Amino acid sequence: MDARSLEESIRKDIENAANDQALEEARIKYLGRRGLVTSLLKNIKDAPPAERPKLGATSNRLKKLAESLIEEKLTVLRAAQPASRFYTPPHDATLPAHDGLTGHRHVLSKVFGEIKDIFVGMGYTLASGPQVELEYYNFQALNFPDEHPSRDEQDTFYITDDMLLRTHTSPVQVRYMEEHKPPLKIIAAGRVFRNESIDPSHAAEFHQVEGLYVDTDVALADLKKDVEIFIQQLFGSKTQVRFRPSFFPFTEPSAEVDMTCFVCRGSGCSVCGKTGWIEIMGSGMVHPNVFRAVGYDPDIYSGFAFGMGVDRVAMIKYGIDDIRLFLGNDLRFLSQF
Ligand code: PHE
After folding, report:
1. CA angle 164, 168, 171 (to 5 degrees)
2. Which CATH architecture has domain 107-334?
3. What digits encode the pLDDT tens for the residues 225-279?
């Protein structure tokens, strides 16, 4: 084949290549190891010396021509292909899904949800009150005498002389009774504040759930029954409950409630300090002075109240050893629940 028809055939073949494969075939036909242009170049050394320079120039020109035409044609073919042909990642159904960060409820609100569900199932309804509270509701109406040391027990953040951050949820009892007539059966939950020295079991902000039941003829036995049902629903039916005499200005008699340690079931371990018991809430029969403060006749009505720390319940339930973690906003902690 002379140089002229070789050039023609190169142009024609490359021009007519309809896809990558046809183009690759054309490349092999001319530029492959045994390709027509390649052989031409190889044969130069066998040609008579006088013809070699011309032959060399022609074959080099044809080689360059073929290369650049192929390059051009490749661009044309690529442009004509749909984008998906350029990058088609293999679909591997066994690859793990992207672990997207989704939000979820805070552990304290989950635990409160459980507590609430149990009490609602027992006929309690929800009540609430303000976090910035009057001294009257936080102390006075709850039978804390003026200037009495019992006020110092709850190190209080005062805002003004008669306004403070509530130190417990018990003021909600008073507010609710002012607005409603017995019978009533409520729980109230929320954040409380105490000027504590901070350590693994003390925070300046924590959470309580308060319970109050008032009717005619409410007895201590009713308190014991409701508290026992609650604890056994939350911690298991084998949990035992005991009442220990205590003091609160707004209840009489008053009792701390202990339950058998859920870890050792009462035999003694590090969680319960080897006693087998864990303190879970304060409770008692509503003091007649509290009824008087809200205009209830203590000769007609009686009632019980109890209060517990939600943080503490969550710590017991999940084996958390530092109360400061709850409001620390560390996702490594929060995402575990
Ligand atoms: N308010 C008490 C406290 O914060 C708990 C309590 C509530 C005790 C209701 C008795 C009755 O310690």
Report:
1. 75
2. 2-Layer Sandwich (3.30)
3. 999 999 999 999 999 999 999 999 999 999 999 999 888 888 888 878 899 999 9
